[in-house]
């Protein structure tokens, strides 16, 4: 893994050119569509060159965004993590190619092209990631989480050099950026899940925001200014991470919100300490050595002083160091900000924070109790209409308060659910003419290693006798909710589940409240002088605040049968069995402008709540199911309009029979384990460690290059049996990195499409809803058609990135712009590949993932 | 910034959607106004309950009210409304595809699981018995379509639903009218329907093509099922397709040659000897087996004359139309007035058909068999209150 790459391209927006006045809207939109796809292509090529310079051959966790700045232009940004992917060969035939199969294997021309990867070869979608170089062994299955495998299409050079290195001779000579990792400019990773052992400590969320004026750009057509802006922000993020004693930022993402000429740039990530040895391996170690990594963990562990010794006998052995991720990376006496530390509940050796906020997926190795759930903080703030600098100043003045408020809400809701950690935290703040809205979504879980949250109490700042009774009822209400939540998410404290031998953690030990492992610079220092030592206190100082509390409490409870989260899988759910439905829901409200600040906020809150309710209602026939990867995005297209877009996947999940089981590693492991176990890539990885001597480097290149075909051909043969090949084949779209019940056979490349649709007969098409409905249906079907054309049958990491809607009811016109992206893949139903499974099962036990 | 007109959308489709547009502002919240509400899934999943409401011709408002009353408990009107609107939008878009089923299974716009597809077709092509009973045997023409509002009131089916059903009949009729091969199979293949539904459609097409009169007062006691059964019998033995390996294998039209030949049966009533012989044979056969009150002797002549006359008249297409009414007038009514039970009728017809074979001078045995087998099963089906 080579590290962070970013690129930015700017161009004039055709919609704002003078010629737009005389040409038809469609011509203008077509020009826009064309330009955007050109820009995105150019961007990918530029990024590809950068990666090549770094010695990599792939970008994982590729995030591409469009900023429609308006008159100042159109910006396409991309960030990603440069990596070297290797084609694993050698070992493959030995494991999978049982003798009977080998003769059948004839070189499929297409695959040969892929394998040989001659420069300029006709297969730009090269990477069939048969294997990864170790730093990311799991990045392929467990995480391509946000990872589009974007491989700089058509850079023949890129593909050539990349895979040459990875060719059978295994002379992986990487000229590596010799700078130690943590001294690099941006030690960022856009990935959100990592191989076990890679993460050492996670400290918390770091974020930075900045408000910029677009009309002050000196030369709008050049990318320098924007580059400089982002550089500032990234540096800030880096320094935050440093302040937390961390040398890397993972799960990093960037986001913009534009309103007229004011632009809010935000970036967030999770400060973490990564395994330095693995990092070094990632960049330097010779391939053979590196490969042995997952299998040969014992050796590594002895060498690696930090990690506790562990025997790799079986997956049941929970990793002793699994709680290590939660341990604070800094000295207890030298905290970066005031906070409370508690003793780790699983190892009792180290200190842990009482809550943990992160932007990453829940690591497989982290033990959690009960199930996770989505929590959301929503906030809407009024602001005066203003222009230019005044506007920017107002916004930047409001931002810190919003962020503070959002975090308070998150914290309260977290406590109300009796949980202690947040994963997949995404904070979206959008600016409009009249208001600012913020939505923070995250998946709350109870991490076994962290102390259980204290009780939630209500306190009035100025105790008045009149409201005493009121407070009591409120308190009772809260207690009820907490109890109900605990029951619903099956949170049973460790004492009840773990062996008696283990000394129970002391809940009293933990102290107050709002200390968070959260460092965002705008966060005002928290006042911890609440006086209550063992409880989270919600203070009520006036009527408004009381209303807020009510709002907190009135969150619609998730109906039975539903599980909802914004991470890839619901923590605590063993495995998803099948995809049921991927959907996008868009709602637009116009809020009454005469509302008071609080009514506005309440309206916004109930609006989001209603949307969730309607989702539950619509999907009621699918229960029990999980809503995974729920992605909320809010925008303010017009003065009083709020547009909320939700994309999510509904998946069927296994009924868990043993409810009270503390679900530790097995949970997600099974979920991912299935793909691991059947995955051709994995076997070579460990085989090399065991049988590496047997496979001399001089192993005939013939076998090695052929091996992937063998595998592929087998899959091909089985494909027709699967239901996915019925005419017209069903194409699954999923925002996750895998298709439940299937495993990815082949990556076919990134899909990144941009559509603009306009109409001048809005009423006739059923109004705005009708128009958008048709459009989204068409977008989905076009994406599916793209995938079919590439020979795939599913899209993973599907994102609907942009959905900009404009209307003019009086003129009966509307137009909408949508950007979707994802990875086209070919998946194979699990049951179809049982043969492989059997063939490989003997090797599985020795494979402690 | 915006383009002129997007063509290619049918008028009916637009009208449907337009209604959706106007309703969408029904619920107003003072704080906020829902302007757009869209839910799109990668797989198009359909709530069968809402689908049925749509097919029954409910407007969104009525459908919501209906859903509110029945079933789904504990949810708010706005949820129901939003869900119903979403579904209705899908239905309006699907409608064109439903009208040409082969297209639905080959399009990419909607990803619909095959099982769901068959439910969609089955429901879309389903019909109300009350409505089809009114329409049976009528020409599927514009004129009839104009009368649909009367029919809809009579049958108690909403006009919208009637229009859909009428259009379905017409569509199926147009497609299979000129087709060779089995009528049922043709319908099944082209409209992907279940066998039961395909049979019903064959009956409807057959009736419409031959314009059988079914609406007379005397026939009102007959149900659609009765007619469908008869149609099947007629198709099985009286059509061109039934005549065996005729090159022009058509199920829709009756076999003209056969109808022409039927006039030869006249001899059964015109020849006095033959008639008496036949009568005595039948009387002998049924003696003691039929209910005591049955007066075979007295009725035989009338009944036999009735049946044979029907046969001889079938060469005129006007009389073909009156086939069922003739059966009722000439045979069923006399039997009923004599209080025959359906067992009596069955026995009589059995003997009546069989003993004709024993008539030495009667040469049209094959013709007689082909005619009487069908007549027998039709009468038996129609012989009820």
From TrEMBL, chain A:
<dbReference type="Pfam" id="PF23128">
    <property type="entry name" value="YbjQ_4"/>
</dbReference>
<feature type="compositionally biased region" description="Basic and acidic residues">
    <location>
        <begin position="658"/>
        <end position="670"/>
    </location>
</feature>
<feature type="region of interest" description="Disordered">
    <location>
        <begin position="286"/>
        <end position="318"/>
    </location>
</feature>
<dbReference type="GO" id="GO:0010828">
    <property type="term" value="P:positive regulation of D-glucose transmembrane transport"/>
</dbReference>
<dbReference type="GO" id="GO:0005544">
    <property type="term" value="F:calcium-dependent phospholipid binding"/>
</dbReference>
<dbReference type="InterPro" id="IPR056431">
    <property type="entry name" value="C2CD5_YbjQ-rel_dom"/>
</dbReference>
<dbReference type="InterPro" id="IPR057815">
    <property type="entry name" value="C2CD5_C"/>
</dbReference>
<dbReference type="Pfam" id="PF23028">
    <property type="entry name" value="YbjQ_3"/>
</dbReference>
<feature type="domain" description="C2CD5 C-terminal">
    <location>
        <begin position="733"/>
        <end position="827"/>
    </location>
</feature>
<dbReference type="InterPro" id="IPR038983">
    <property type="entry name" value="C2CD5"/>
</dbReference>
<feature type="compositionally biased region" description="Low complexity">
    <location>
        <begin position="140"/>
        <end position="150"/>
    </location>
</feature>
<feature type="domain" description="C2">
    <location>
        <begin position="350"/>
        <end position="447"/>
    </location>
</feature>
<feature type="region of interest" description="Disordered">
    <location>
        <begin position="658"/>
        <end position="677"/>
    </location>
</feature>
<dbReference type="Pfam" id="PF23025">
    <property type="entry name" value="YbjQ_2"/>
</dbReference>
<protein>
    <submittedName>
        <fullName>C2 calcium dependent domain containing 5</fullName>
    </submittedName>
</protein>
<feature type="domain" description="C2">
    <location>
        <begin position="559"/>
        <end position="650"/>
    </location>
</feature>
<feature type="region of interest" description="Disordered">
    <location>
        <begin position="495"/>
        <end position="526"/>
    </location>
</feature>
<dbReference type="GO" id="GO:0072659">
    <property type="term" value="P:protein localization to plasma membrane"/>
</dbReference>
<dbReference type="GO" id="GO:0005886">
    <property type="term" value="C:plasma membrane"/>
</dbReference>
<feature type="domain" description="C2">
    <location>
        <begin position="2"/>
        <end position="86"/>
    </location>
</feature>
<dbReference type="GO" id="GO:0005509">
    <property type="term" value="F:calcium ion binding"/>
</dbReference>
<feature type="region of interest" description="Disordered">
    <location>
        <begin position="693"/>
        <end position="724"/>
    </location>
</feature>
Automatic annotation (TrEMBL), chain B:
<dbReference type="Pfam" id="PF05427">
    <property type="entry name" value="FIBP"/>
</dbReference>
<dbReference type="InterPro" id="IPR008614">
    <property type="entry name" value="FIBP"/>
</dbReference>
<dbReference type="GO" id="GO:0017134">
    <property type="term" value="F:fibroblast growth factor binding"/>
</dbReference>
<dbReference type="GO" id="GO:0070527">
    <property type="term" value="P:platelet aggregation"/>
</dbReference>
<dbReference type="GO" id="GO:0005634">
    <property type="term" value="C:nucleus"/>
</dbReference>
<protein>
    <submittedName>
        <fullName>Fibroblast growth factor (acidic) intracellular binding protein b</fullName>
    </submittedName>
</protein>
